[in-house]
Design goal:
mainly alpha
């Protein structure tokens, strides 16, 4: 009788993992609560010490190394409050990989979670689109400026990474020859369309690059009927996407890129308002220039965990970068951001993390790890992804999860 009431630990773990995956797409507070619950569940285990000792230290070390730098950087930072806040936000970097690399879960169970997650993303996207058209009104392509901001409150690039994963899940199903190939093709196109609708240029470029790589793979492996379907869907997709207002506006912005740093600096000495109309790459050139100047003078240990933004603002003041002073921009480049905080050791920590998982993906032919690491590697060039909770959670959740997924017969 007692055994019939025995708690199935693995089922609880799966449920909590699913909650983390879903709630990270709808806001900060719910996401924090779900992660906190998962951590508490992990700690309440009589075999906790044994599990921790059995962790694959090679795959966990890059996360531990980066988090250690956050703690060490707190010793010599001036802005202690900002430093502690960043460490609190980054706790997932330390704990999530440890949980994922030590809790028992099968490949089949992970795949079921991914399918549920894929359908959740589709439902959420449809809700946002319907909300924009029928409740807020106005053209659909302005959804990011209004509905995403009011209903979700997540920056478009960070939100796009969830749908990039949805695209990968659908692609993986096609590669594994799902019985519902036509439906999955439609889902795949929907994910591409929605990423474009979100309007992050970085995410759009990475998605198009990924799509080309997937098409090349499909064409080299699939039958003629599948190839014909791919060609048809591809042309239809390109045609409809090219007609959207958001794509046209992005193309126009590309034409306004000013590659001259001095010209950009002079422009933004004057411009205070309406800078949303300016190509954001122009703004990034100035941020990167200022970050480089600080790095040169702090190349070994950086400026500390909490001082990166403060030192950038001081550099903005030197050149009269008014938008930067007013908005207190970070470096908008994770490689530079980490270099700023922790010097050469911080830069190497990012290269170690990405390099290790890239190497694993190539060696073990891991579809998901390769493309997620590709996304992060490119996104890091244009955004300080590890400054926000959703960037931290995405990396520290899905890279270890897919490492477990890729291990054949892992706790079947």
């Amino acid at each position: 009788m007692i055994n019939s009431f025995k708690i199935d630990r693995r089922r609880i773990y799966l449920l909590l993992l699913l909650l983390v995956m879903i709630l990270m797409t709808v806001g900060y507070n719910l996401s924090s609560y779900s992660i906190g619950t998962l951590i508490l569940f992990y700690l309440v285990d009589k075999n906790l010490i044994k599990k921790i000792r059995e962790v694959n230290i090679k795959m966990y070390f890059p996360f531990l190394f980066y988090f250690s730098l956050l703690l060490i950087g707190l010793i010599y930072t001036d802005n202690m409050g900002k430093g502690i806040k960043l460490i609190t936000t980054s706790i997932s970097f330390l704990v999530l990989p440890l949980i994922l690399l030590t809790e028992k879960i099968s490949k089949n169970q992970i795949f079921k979670l991914l399918i549920i997650y894929k359908y959740w993303l589709i439902v959420l996207a449809l809700y946002l689109m319907v909300h924009k058209v029928y409740i807020q009104g106005g053209p659909l392509w302005t959804m990011t400026l209004f509905t995403l901001k009011t209903e979700i409150g997540i920056h478009q690039l960070y939100f796009s990474q969830f749908y990039y994963l949805g695209l990968l899940i659908a692609s993986y199903q096609i590669i594994k020859r799902s019985k519902k190939t036509v439906i999955i093709f439609i889902e795949l196109l929907f994910f591409i369309f929605f990423i474009i609708l979100l309007g992050s240029v970085t995410a759009i470029i990475i998605t198009l690059l990924t799509s080309l790589m997937l098409i090349f793979f499909f064409f080299s492996k699939e039958r003629n009927a599948v190839k014909g379907g791919l060609i048809t869907l591809l042309f239809l997709g390109v045609f409809f996407v090219s007609k959207t207002a958001i794509v046209k506006s992005k193309i126009k912005k590309i034409q306004t890129i000013d590659w001259t740093l001095s010209s950009n600096i002079n422009t933004h000495k004057e411009l205070k308002e309406g800078f949303g109309k300016v190509n954001t790459l122009n703004l990034r050139f100035i941020k990167w220039h200022c970050a480089k100047e600080i790095i040169i003078n702090n190349i070994w240990f950086g400026v500390g965990t909490g001082d990166a933004k403060d030192t950038l603002v001081e550099e903005y003041k030197k050149i009269g970068f008014k938008n930067g002073i007013e908005s207190r921009y970070n470096a908008h480049n994770q490689y530079l951001e980490t270099f700023l905080k922790f010097g050469i050791f911080g830069f190497l920590s990012i290269l170690l993390l990405l390099g290790l998982y890239f190497k694993y993906a190539f060696k073990h032919k891991s579809f998901f790890i390769f493309f997620i690491t590709l996304f992060l590697s490119l996104a890091f060039m244009f955004e300080s992804m590890l400054e926000r909770q959703h960037g931290i959670i995405f990396l520290s959740l899905f890279l270890p999860l897919f490492y477990v997924f890729n291990k054949e017969n892992y706790y079947k």
